[in-house]
Amino acid sequence: MSRNILILPGDGIGPEITAEAVKILEAARDGGLDVALTEGKVGGAGYDAAGHPLPPATLDAAKAADAILLGAVGGPKWDKIEDISLRPERGLLGLRKELELFANLRPAILYPQLAEASSLKPEVVSGLDIMIVRELTGGIYFGQPRGIETRDGQRVGYNTYVYSESEIERIGRTAFELAQKRNKKLCSVDKANVLEVTMLWREVMERIAADYPDVELTHMYVDNAAMQLVRAPKQFDVMVTGNMFGDILSDEASMLTGSIGMLPSASLNADGKGMYEPCHGSAPDIAGQGIANPLATILSVAMMLRYTFNETAWAERIEKAVGVVLDEGLRTADIAYAGTRKVSTSEMGDAVLAAFKAQL
Ligand code: NAI
Ligand code: MG
């Protein structure tokens, strides 16, 4: 039976970048990779078509799929929807929660060809290869109670930052196992000097560390981690942190690699089922112009083949194809600089496709 991949293009640049990634998947399928592709609506597209950012049909398809490729959701068009539970971003949060995609893997790798696109000096970033492991279904983005209400005559907004021991343990074990396969260094990021929830986080990380004696565990406060990421990023190998800190630190790390348009991600559940998406959003400022960088989405497909389908050779072909087009000097606007050739979204996608097919 074919492995079933659900494609959810979403909003803004989502459909543009997803189309380029689908070209690669179709070529892989034609070249012998056993996959079947179906498409669904999520986010603003889901709201427009079915009145909900996560229509029941999409949720059913997502549960039935072996893996999901998502573009991005959201945009100003839907920011005025009064019922917050119907905003596009809630479609994405709903998918993560319903499928229990608790482990978000965000690699920040600087391609040598893009050293000049990084905002940091080459000697600080060259060879950078960090894996940020972000907890994705708990923490302050999901904690109850939450809301905006009137207290003593003025409005107050509040959220709850909560993690259970079991939630911390499962993301911790994912990070330790990844560290074992890499350089055996794990840095856990928290704010244990101020927040009780992260005091517990640190305690649990220390406890499970005993099961991974070959991994060196260190701890860092999130404010220092933000600083160290731009001061000396290569000190890190695997980093593990909660939902909000991971959201912020991975965006920061993305800039070291030249552009957020280069960063793929995997969101996995306990069975290895996953949703794969670029780290960036729907980029409404450039949507419809054909200039978005599709590489983060294409590299997300490579992660899918590696992590959910165990098809390492296919994943490597995609990554190699990306390297080839960067070697050729092709650049979308976000990574272009003097001496490179500026190309559109589809020109970039076609070039990767050609370099991919050349390996089949
Ligand atoms: P964003 O990531 O969409 O854009 C930030 C900046 O990066 C913009 O200047 C954009 O043009 C640029 N950018 C992003 N992706 C790019 C690409 N592939 N190629 C070239 N440039 C790229 O974040 P922003 O502006 O904060 O949010 C825009 C919308 O996206 C909002 O509605 C937000 O809620 C949503 N969002 C959705 C996410 C998702 O679907 N996973 C994640 C983050 C934001
Ligand atoms: Mg973010």
UniProtKB/TrEMBL annotation:
Obligatory cofactor(s): Mn(2+); Mg(2+)
Signal peptide: none
Keywords recorded for this protein, A-Z: Amino-acid biosynthesis, Branched-chain amino acid biosynthesis, Cytoplasm, Leucine biosynthesis, Magnesium, Manganese, Metal-binding, NAD, Oxidoreductase
Reaction equation(s) it catalyzes: (2R,3S)-3-isopropylmalate + NAD(+) = 4-methyl-2-oxopentanoate + CO2 + NADH
Keyword Nucleotide-binding: no
Pathway: Amino-acid biosynthesis; L-leucine biosynthesis; L-leucine from 3-methyl-2-oxobutanoate: step 3/4
Record's subcellular location: Cytoplasm
Class of the enzyme per the UniProt entry, highest EC level: oxidoreductase
GO BP field: L-leucine biosynthetic process
Assembly, per entry: Homodimer.
Protein name: 3-isopropylmalate dehydrogenase
The encoding gene: leuB
